[in-house]
Design a protein that fits this description.
Blueprint (H helix, E strand, L loop, with lengths): L14 E3 L8 E6 L2 H11 L3 E13 L3 E15 L6 E16 L15 E3 L3 E3 H12 L24 H7 L4
Parallel strand pairs: 5-6
Antiparallel strand pairs: 1-7, 2-3, 3-4, 4-5
């Protein structure tokens, strides 16, 4: 998800020309439409996303910009224990460094953690919003109040007690 290459980069594209920002500083807010939220929910394989907003502050020079902020949304996920859908908030902090791709020429990008590239002096804040929302999703969501209860046979049953009972003719 980290390599955004074209003028359109997904269901939530919001390209900003950062070279035009005054003194290398600025603020960007991305608010996803209901249709964009529905498309992202389908991409993330969850029932729903609503109220998706990314708020970003930009600082630095056009050669190296730092973007900080937060991505917030209300998401509907399916509980991994009860299999019931439930709604909950996601709030993910953002801190990303972007650099002019010309500065990367001649470097061994495989060995070094390099900043994200500025593409033609532009950043897709929509893709950034979607990326950090995805990072904020719980991969094993649980509905509040639901706990996983392991099945226990007998008082101090071990993993092979049920098989032992079958072998001994008790079951």
């Amino acid at each position: 998800m980290r390599h955004r290459t074209g003028p359109e980069s997904g269901p939530l594209a919001r390209w900003v020309n950062v070279e035009r920002l005054p003194q290398g500083r600025g603020a960007v807010t991305v608010e996803a439409s209901p249709a964009e939220c529905a498309t992202l929910a389908a991409d993330f394989k969850i029932p729903a996303i609503r109220d998706l907003v990314g708020r970003f502050e930009i600082s630095g020079s056009t050669n190296r910009m730092t973007v900080t902020g937060t991505v917030e949304a209300v998401v509907t996920q399916v509980c991994t224990v009860s299999l019931e859908p439930f709604e909950g908030p996601v709030r993910e902090p953002v801190e990303v460094v972007f650099t002019d791709t010309d500065q990367l020429a001649g470097t061994d990008a495989e060995d070094v953690e390099i900043p994200d590239p500025l593409i033609g002096g532009r950043i897709d804040f929509g893709a950034l919003t979607a990326e950090f929302l995805a990072l904020g999703l719980d991969p094993y969501p649980r509905k509040p109040g639901i706990a996983f209860e392991p099945v226990v046979i007998g008082e101090d049953a071990g993993p092979f007690d049920a098989l032992r009972q079958l072998r001994d003719g008790e079951g």
